[in-house]
Amino acid sequence: MIEKALRGNSNYWMWLAFLGAFIAVGGICYIRQYLFGMGLTGMGRDLSWGLYISQFTFLVGVAAGGLMLVLPYYIHNYKAFGRITILGEFLAIASLVMCLMFIMADIGQPIRGLNMILHPTPNSMLFWDMVVLLGYLTLNVICGWVILTAERKQVKPPKWVYIFVYISIPFAVSIHTVTAMLYCGLPGRHFWLSAITAPRFLASAFAAGPALIVIACLIMKRIAHFDAGKEAINKITTIIMYAAIINAFFVCLEFFVGWYSNIPGHKHSLEYLFFGLEHHGQVYNNLVPFMWSSVLLCFGGLGVFAYMKITKTGSDLMIGLGCAMIFIALWLDKGLGFVMGGLVVNPLDEIVEYYPTANEIAVSLGIWATGIFLVTVLYKIAVKVEHEVEG
Amino acid sequence: MDKQRRKFLKIAGVTALAGIGAPAVVKLTASPVLASSTGKTDAHGVQAEHGSGHGAESAPQGVRLGLLIDMRKLYGHPELLDKATAACNKVHNIPAIDSKKSEIKWIWKTPFANAFTDQTAYHSSKVTKENDFLVLCNHCDEPPCVRVCPTKATYIEKNTGIVSMDYHRCIGCRFCMMGCPYGARSFNWFDPRPYIKELNPDFPTRMRGVVEKCNFCGERLALGQEPACVEAVKEAGAIVFGDLNDPNSEIRQILDKEHTIQRQAALGTKPSVFYIV
How far apart are CA B169 and CA B267, in angstroms? Predict the structure, then answer.
């Protein structure tokens, strides 16, 4: 089926070349980092996790988000999602590849990466994260490919593949739960030490992943004559709304716990993220504009959806706008605020703000471009197969 | 290259010996008067004595090395704190990187409010306000860094209780730095070797991309020496090192007598470093 990705119009190739340019720059910047060391990043002794890990965390969510298509279709037999579950599975594959790339970019001795497998350590959540991520990647590759092949041959998928489909459902939950456990089990990191971290991650994942799929569907409708169907898009936007509302609710709960308990450690990160943290006469607030943008975009996106639901209208443009707003809001919240906010106060009560370097940003963009490249190719294959079947 | 490797293996062997040798060394460092008062004592004898206890700490097993910093003897002498840090830096080939972002520190000084974030600094005494405190790895009995490490590159040495690092296994994920609630760990953001002022050929240097921290001078214990910081402030007798599980060790004698505090004790990490303030 790969050959289907090798035929396309000039726009397709130009798009891939455009992404290729980012990948090339990212690759060069990574080589620089590999040769010099992690000192080329903005991370330091106090803020020793940064953009890479936060992108990883966010993308695990995007990967898990596909569950919102797979679960209704396979468990509840919701036929409207029939055409697009494959998009969820393929998005998961691309997201997980990005996750693994971000992890490799983040570790100081990447050539020793296999030590994770050579010296398996079950008490480390990072070990379990590797297990579930590789497991979920494998499951999605198997399910996506087998089901698409069956569709192409216009036969029912073999029965055995459903076992993997059903296993992949708890796996999707597990990848984000275990990723949350990287953070929420660390003593002395007050912002992360919250039992609600995992549910919050899942809620934001179930909004961000489907939002990206809707955007992809709308783009493909315009450029590839692929129509996901009005009912399907309508249902996904409802799912996105609920998930985004639950995420916002969870964030509010964090605020309540911090302010009502009045424990400084529980407030510091939120103060830093939303209002600016004052310390020895200096105010640290470099993320405040981003976090308020996140709030406005989240409620703006929800407002757009609510308007469409109430008036029962909605153009593709409005749906796309709503989804993009929610997606960016959640990226700012989890892909930026969560990690940096949690680390801004170091264990010795010193404040360190994080500014990623150009090199680091270029590597991150390169990895994102690789993921989008992969999504483009995989979606191209999926859409071509659908077209072929429909004649 | 080959020579360096041989040198490393030699050191690695010696460090491994530390595990076997340490109990004996601890006895050496304990005051001879105390040691002779009970005749022969071995660490395992302690177990029976504490076996029936049902306190917060589990029954002690084997040797658990600890450090006690008597700040009373260091107040007004910041030069002694610097001396301890300098001794450690020199012995362990710690690079002098002049950047808060990338610096590497094993033992350093910091104000009370930073060292003891869970203690009040409100209306603190003049002495508390004006003096810095030594901070280092606490060699916890329940170390979060060991719990989170995905490769067992940091681990508890069974024979000594020291929380050690294997620089050759560390993949540089920095998860241990996230886990450590004391900020005791440093990462080599780039090749540290050019920043080593005076190379100590008896201790390995590190490469970029790995985490490092205080090792309680495991390599010196193996040779029957005291930790470098203890030795550096010997004149003031401000730092006492020994086996926390041996009721006759000097450190235990002081712990039994004086009121001591620990950093972030509420987090349940069971630090092995104590302070008299």
Answer: 28
C-alpha A239: how far from chain center: 16
A51's tokens: 């953009």
Residue B46 burial class via C-beta count within 10 angstroms: exposed 0-12, middle 13-18, buried 19 and up: buried
d(CA A214, CA A46): 39
* pTM exceeding 0.95: no
Residue B43 — pLDDT band, cuts 50, 70, 90? very low
CB A332, CB A58: distance < 8 Å:
no
pLDDT band at B2 (very low <50, low <70, confident <90, very high): low
The whole-angstrom distance between B107's CA and the closest CA on chain A is: 14
Lowest mean pLDDT among A16-25, B117-126, B161-170, B178-187: B117-126
By the 8 A CB rule, do A341 and A320 touch? no
Confidence of residue B11 (pLDDT cuts 50, 70, 90): low
pLDDT digits (tens, 9 = 90+) for A129-171: 999 999 999 999 999 999 999 989 999 999 999 999 999 999 9
Pick the CATH number of A2-390 from 1.10.3720.10, 3.30.365.10, 3.60.21.10, 1.20.1630.10: 1.20.1630.10
- HSE, side-chain direction, 13 A CA sphere, residue B126: 1
With residue B68 as reference, give the H or E element that holds it: strand B65-70
ipTM of predicted complex: 0.91
Q: Is B135 helix (H, G, I), strand (E, B) or coil?
A: strand
Averaged pLDDT, A168-179: 95
Q: For residue B6, what pLDDT is reported?
A: 58
The rounded distance, in Å, linking the Cα atoms of A17 and A73 is 35
CA distance B28 to B75: 28
Chain A partners within 8 Å of B177 (Cβ): 45, 48
Span B193-205, average pLDDT:
94
B43 φ/ψ angles, rounded to the nearest 5 degrees: -60, -30
Share of chain A above pLDDT 70, in %: 100
pLDDT band for position A312 (cuts 50, 70, 90): confident
B181, B190, B210 ranked by CB distance to A347: nearest: B181
CB contact under 8 A, A106 and B264: no
CB contact under 8 Å between A109 and B171, yes or no, is yes
For B2, phi then psi, to 5°, come to: -65, -40
Nearest to A125 among B148, B170, B182 (CB): B148
Domains of chain B plus CATH, in order, are 2-46+62-276 (3.30.70.20)
Contacts of B182 in chain A (CB under 8 A): 188, 347-348
Query: HEC states along chain A?
Result: CHHHHHCCCHHHHHHHHHHHHHHHHHHHHHHHHHHHCHHHCCCCCCCCCCHHHHHHHHHHHHHHHCHHHHHHHHCCCCHHHCCCHHHHHHHHHHHHHHHHHHHHHHCCCHHHCCHHHHCCCCCCHHHHHHHHHHHHHHHHHHHHHHHHHHHHCCCCCCCHHHHHHHHHHHHHHHHHHHHHHHHHCCCCCCCCCCCCHHHHHHHHHHHHHHHHHHHHHHHHHHHCCCCCCHHHHHHHHHHHHHHHHHHHHHHHHHHHHHHHHCCHHHHHHHHHHHCCEEECCEEECCCHHHHHHHHHHHHHHHHHHHHHHHHCCCCHHHHHHHHHHHHHHHHHHHHHHHHHHHHCECCCCCECCCCCCHHHHHHHHHHHHHHHHHHHHHHHHHHHHHHHHHC
Cα separation, B107 vs B114, whole angstroms: 14
Beta bridge partners of A368: none
